[in-house]
Amino acid sequence: MTQLNATKWVNDYSDMLYRYALPRVNDTEAAKDLVQETFLAAWRNYENFKGEISEKNWLFTILKNKIIDHFRKASTRLTESLPTVADDESYFDNSDHWTITSAPKNWNTDTDTTINRKEFYEVLYKCKGKLNEIQNMVFTMKYLDGLESEDICKELNITASNYWVLIHRAKLQLRACLEKNWFNL
Amino acid sequence: MISCKQATDYISRREESKLTFRQRWQLWQHLAVCTFCRLFNKQNKIFIKNVSHLHEHTDAALTSEQKESLIAALESS
What we know:
The complex is a heterodimer of chains A (185) and B (77).
Chain A: H1 3-25, H2 28-44, H3 55-78, H4 117-129, H5 133-143, H6 149-156, H7 160-183
Chain B: H1 4-15, H2 21-33, H3 35-51, H4 64-76
């Protein structure tokens, strides 16, 4: 492997990989580390690269595995404090109906046509970043990577009831954050 | 009648076809009368659809210093 290749690899692929990792881990430092680990793994195992897929797709495959590993490691650290029942942060009242302040409001943006896409995605990224770490992992695996709940539970070693509580809370929080910061401006 | 808390949870479970026939019927009944949960249902669809495209809508990039150190890490490995 020549010096030219290292420079070319980084110039060609690092931003692409970084942009993929960042909205998943919601942490610039962790995203950067994942990109570095991906390059290093690819570099060391280059003889295993058969050219059956493009170099780019090969790097993405490695990155996706690194992200799952990252989540798996984080989950062993986080699962001790998992809720099995929802801790209610006032979304619902005593009879489990929406409280007045939390009830969804009409979003005054015509979402298909008038969303200023780039700014909307910035708000969405920030709101996602406000989820706690385990909620964010579960939400990412489900809605950014399209995994099924059973597989997510297996990867993160959590129960189905943990999973549904986490997803429920994540969505309530994300929806409220979007409403506050985007749709009712 | 199921509660709003249950209905919003059922909406996620329905995405994976995890509801029994009875639960599907209960959710349907609830949504028929509850404006708030209908809004939740609609808004949920919007953000779960868009969130998977986050990486396509960002200008985030590594700094040139970060790239230099990546190159250095590769060359010294």
